[in-house]
Specification:
The structure is a single chain. The chain has 664 residues and is an alpha+beta fold. The chain has 13 helices and 38 strands. The protein has an eight-stranded mixed beta sheet with strand order 31-32-34-33-35-36-37-38, with helices on both faces. Strands 1-2-3-4-5 form a five-stranded antiparallel beta sheet, with no helix packed on it. Strands 6-7-8-9 form a four-stranded antiparallel beta sheet, with no helix packed on it. A hairpin with a 5-residue loop joins β12 (169-175) and β13 (181-185). α8 (548-557) runs antiparallel to α9. The radius of gyration is 26 Å and the shape is globular.
Length: 664
């Protein structure tokens, strides 16, 4: 499978939110009466973008058959234009002038006026139609386009990145009015898989991928000669290369090239356990730490920071990262004051400034907590006026729901674990029924924020615990790599210790403890049911790897070399052998499942194929075990359909409420 096919599988969508609608919630005082589907309603408005002059707001509105672009006049705050653009979801909606926008559709770039006029293809999937004479030349001219950035001081030209049919990257400068293309970097000969460019499109770093090996190079004398790239930090040279085994323990992670000459922003852990954000001059090796945290990583291989620029003055004004909650650090006094004003207007909320006009006096803000997807707000700094553009809260009756708490506990060996605990919104008992929701990955983490399943379970009378067990990202390298070769041991023990801590604090009813998860979380649910049958009363698993040896064979067959090597190292195949892998696979341990279990899987899952669930279903039916397996139509590894998530959540609650352990 070519890398281009992977690009089409992993499309990047803009920030999404949901159009407000009452949906019959008037008069509801009991959150248990909120319809289950309300927790999973799809987004119908998203990709909000403010024009350079701050006079207009553009966003996408979804209807049953079409996606429309909507334009709001921000002086009058009324919608002035709305026009259909596609039956598929547009990507990367961006203002390229005060009157014109661009957006992508499956790698094709379109441009259009703010009133819907002059809609045309700016960049098609065929790079040069005149050169297409047959199949080979057709394939050679295939391109997948994405917006890169606007060159400094240039109003007509925009930088675009294109990938050819082999997944190799190129940089182009395109005139948005004439469509004239200037190739700034053609990677065909060098076969670059990724490029890091400065704000003028000059290539600074080239990434090349060979199976699981990622290598980084720099151009020598701006020619096609390459040398391995390395950085000098504290008088020591660090290469940027990594493979599947070293991915989690990299010393340096480059984020992007900045506006200042010869400057890049990176996260590094060369002098400690936690990553810190550094401004680095790659010509002089000068470096300045601009962000660090005693508890959390500020950027890492799987925890990228968001960098915020004042594009008019061409400088970094702030950055955001994940601490116990989303955290923004402003380096500019004006933005610090904006943040203080917004936090006073919306106390108790996380108020995220994420877009603004050229003068930075009109801003787009997302204000949210864990109870809803929040509000999109237009903030006029000059008038000190905030207007809500979209509000999802009246769909969920958040006044009657519970916010998520930061809960910290100690494991049996004394390790501190940070988790998220959502109390039940309704409870008739002093001790809570508890659902544990381990995250997927497993080298990822749970975050503070809205989760439809978590809030649904809370409104149905359950507390929900989301532990960041060892192996989770964001808490330093030692916490992360402690999870290697421990997916069925230490990780599960850390999860169980969180349950025990709540039981010991008399918060949780030990006869009503359940576990549920997706992907690795689903695997953890089944293996926890096997390892701790006295602790959990029932389990629900979705999209889980059920036979680890078969999953590794799938990666190898599909030539997913990085995933193959990564998971071999993660599981410890070479150290422990295939028999060990069988011993930590639910398929081979099915006879050890002694508590009620439900298994779900999407029939379109391309990460963990549905055959895993189908084979598991045949096995339990052959053994006449009461373990229902449900293959959900039209769902992949992550579920999108309201009906699927509603069905899953309702069946989980039905199982849990029917299975309470007898008093011992």
């Amino acid at each position: 499978m070519t890398r281009l096919k992977y690009l089409f599988l992993f499309l990047i969508f803009g920030y999404a939110n949901v159009l407000s609608s009452a949906h019959g919630l008037e008069g509801i005082t009991d959150p248990a009466q909120i319809p289950a589907e309300n927790f999973f309603k799809e987004n119908t408005e998203f990709s909000y973008r403010i024009s350079p002059d701050g006079k207009q707001l553009a966003f996408i509105r979804k209807y049953t058959q079409t996606y429309n672009i909507v334009i709001t006049d921000l002086d009058k705050f009324v919608e002035v234009h709305e026009f259909a653009v596609s039956k598929n979801s547009p990507e990367h909606l961006t203002w390229i002038s005060n009157s014109r926008l661009v957006f992508g559709l499956s790698g094709v770039i379109y441009s259009v006026n703010q009133d819907g006029a002059d809609l045309r293809v700016l960049l098609s999937n065929i790079y040069d139609a005149d050169k297409v004479k047959g199949y080979i030349s057709f394939v050679d001219n295939l391109r997948y386009w994405s917006l890169l950035k606007r060159p400094r001081g240039n109003e007509e030209d925009v930088l675009f990145l294109s990938y050819n049919s082999d997944g190799h990257a190129n940089v182009h400068k395109i005139n948005i009015y004439t469509g004239e293309k200037t190739d700034l970097y053609d990677a065909e000969e060098l076969k670059a898989d990724g490029l890091y460019t400065d704000r003028d499109g000059k290539v600074i770093l080239i990434e090349k991928i060979k199976k699981e090996q990622h290598s980084f190079y720099r151009l020598v004398n701006d020619k096609d000669d390459l040398e391995l790239a390395s950085l000098d930090i504290a008088n020591q040279r660090y290469q940027l290369n990594y493979d599947a085994k070293s991915y989690l323990n990299r010393s340096v992670v480059v984020h992007e090239i900045g506006y200042e000459k010869d400057t890049m922003y990176l996260s590094e852990k060369t002098s400690g356990d936690r990553y810190q954000l550094v401004k680095y001059n790659y010509a002089t090796n000068a470096q300045e730490v601009i962000g660090s945290d005693p508890v959390y990583d500020v950027g890492s291989p799987d925890e990228r920071v968001s960098l915020h620029y004042d594009y008019k003055n061409r400088r970094l004004v702030g950055f955001s990262y994940n601490a116990d909650k989303h955290k923004t650090v402003w380096l500019d006094e004006r933005f610090k004051k904006y943040q203080q004003t917004l936090d006073k207007k919306y106390p108790g909320q996380i108020n995220i400034i994420y877009d603004w006009n050229e003068n930075a006096d009109k801003l787009l803000v997302v204000s949210r907590d864990a109870k809803t997807k929040g509000k999109v707000i237009v903030f006029d700094a000059a008038k000190n006026k905030a207007i809500v553009q979209t509000d999802y809260s009246n769909m969920l009756s958040p006044d009657h729901m519970k916010d998520t708490l930061i809960y910290k506990y100690k494991t049996q060996d004394g390790t501190a674990i940070t988790s998220y605990l959502t109390p039940p919104a309704t409870s008739s008992t002093k001790k809570w029924p508890l659902i544990v929701m381990p995250h997927g990955g497993p080298f990822a983490r749970s975050h503070y924020g809205y989760d439809g399943h978590m809030q649904y379970f809370s409104t149905r009378g359950f507390a929900v615990l989301e532990p960041n067990f060892r192996g989770s990202t964001g808490y330093g390298v030692q916490h992360l790599i402690a999870g290697k070769q421990q997916i069925a041991d230490l990780m599960l023990a850390d999860i169980a210790d969180g349950v025990r801590a709540l039981i010991n604090e008399n918060k949780v009813d030990p006869s009503q403890v359940y576990i549920l998860g997706f992907s690795y979380g689903g695997y953890a649910a089944i293996m926890s049911a096997i390892k701790y049958p006295d602790l959990y009363s029932a389990a629900v698993s979705a999209a889980a790897p059920l036979d680890l040896n078969k999953q590794l064979k799938h990666y190898k067959k599909e030539e997913h070399w990085f995933a193959y090597e990564f998971w071999q190292d993660l599981i410890g195949v070479k150290q422990q052998g295939k028999k060990f892998v069988e011993s930590i696979s639910p398929y081979q341990r099915v006879d050890d499942i002694k508590i009620p279990l439900l298994v779900f899987h999407g029939d379109k899952d391309s990460i963990i194929p549905k055959e895993q669930a189908e084979d598991f279903k045949k096995l339990v039916e052959k053994k006449k075990l009461n373990i229902p397996v449900r293959i959900i139509q039209s769902e992949g590894h992550g579920w999108d359909l309201v009906s699927s998530n509603t069905y899953f959540a309702e069946k989980a609650v039905e199982l849990f409420k029917a299975n309470k352990k007898s008093a011992q």
